[in-house]
């Protein structure tokens, strides 16, 4: 299982940073894109720099309907891609995706996407969001978009798929930082309000997040 950050508020040299998030998941020879950042132009530029073409994507999973996660979608949709969205997405967005994708799956509860890649299902009340749960030899790794439903709630839900080894993605306003003590790998990305504090708190297990970063499990 290999994760590559392709869109984030921070970036390695030669790649473009911007407010938003997108992460490529590779398992065996299958590729899934989780979220698409805010701008299709920036997403395409970063993917190009990293040697990725949209046609390689078998699945696109969208965490929630915020512009900084779905804004780049047009740049990566293609006629063979399957798209997983929370059922609560607006009709307008759903129809736009259906026009350009092979198939759209509307997620409600926890489910398997492919072998080793699961969704928590849509969580939260007003703004619903799904997170991914990835099987690794060490336990499951949780991948979040913005974590609007609360990182604690997302981690609790992920436990149906196994012991949680790590968490990667936007943690938003998450502030019960001590809940991270039990994890073995932490990579705070995108909108994580307390990113620098988390990085300093866990020097042995925190991994910097930004475009171009690769995490392998
Ligand atoms: Zn958001
Ligand atoms: Zn966001």
Task: Name the helicity range.
Answer: 10-25%
Strand line-up across the major sheet: 6-5-4-3-2-1-13
Oligomeric state, counting identical vs distinct chains: single chain
Unreliable stretches (pLDDT < 50, length at least 5) are: none
Order of H and E elements = EEEHEHEHEEEEEHEEHE
Total strands: the figure is 13
Q: CATH top level?
A: Alpha Beta
Task: Give an overview in words.
- The radius of gyration is 16 Å and the shape is globular.
- By secondary structure, it is of the alpha/beta class.
- It has one domain: Metallo-beta-lactamase, Chain A.
- The chain has 5 helices and 13 strands.
- The mean pLDDT is 97.
- Strand 2 and strand 3 (30-34) form a beta hairpin.
- The strands form 2 sheets. A 7-stranded mixed β-sheet has the order 6-5-4-3-2-1-13.
- The structure holds zinc ion (2 copies).
- One zinc ion is lined by residues 64, 66, 146, 148.
Gist?
Helix content is 18%, strand content 29%.
Give the tags.
seven-stranded mixed beta sheet; 5 helices; 217 residues; 18% helix; globular; Metallo-beta-lactamase, Chain A; binds zinc ion; alpha/beta; 29% strand
């Amino acid at each position: 299982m290999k994760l590559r950050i392709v869109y984030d508020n921070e970036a390695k040299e030669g790649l473009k940073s911007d407010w938003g998030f997108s992460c490529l998941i590779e398992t065996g020879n299958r590729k899934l894109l989780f979220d698409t950042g805010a701008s299709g132009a920036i997403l395409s530029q970063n993917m190009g720099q990293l040697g990725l073409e949209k046609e390689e994507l078998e699945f696109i999973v969208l965490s929630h309907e915020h512009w900084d996660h779905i804004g780049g979608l047009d740049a990566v949709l293609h006629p063979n891609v399957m798209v997983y969205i929370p059922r609560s997405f607006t009709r307008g967005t759903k129809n736009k995706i259906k026009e350009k994708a092979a198939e759209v799956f509307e997620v409600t509860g926890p489910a398997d996407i492919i072998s080793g890649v699961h969704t928590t299902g849509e969580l939260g009340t007003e703004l619903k969001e799904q997170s991914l749960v990835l099987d690794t030899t060490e336990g499951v790794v949780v991948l979040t978009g913005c974590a609007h439903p609360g990182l604690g709630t997302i981690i609790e839900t992920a436990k149906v798929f196994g012991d949680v080894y790590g968490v990667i993605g936007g943690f938003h306003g998450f502030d019960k930082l001590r809940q991270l003590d039990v994890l073995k790998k932490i990579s705070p990305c995108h909108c994580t309000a307390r990113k620098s504090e988390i990085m300093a708190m866990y020097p042995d297990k925190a991994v910097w997040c930004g475009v171009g970063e690769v995490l392998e499990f």
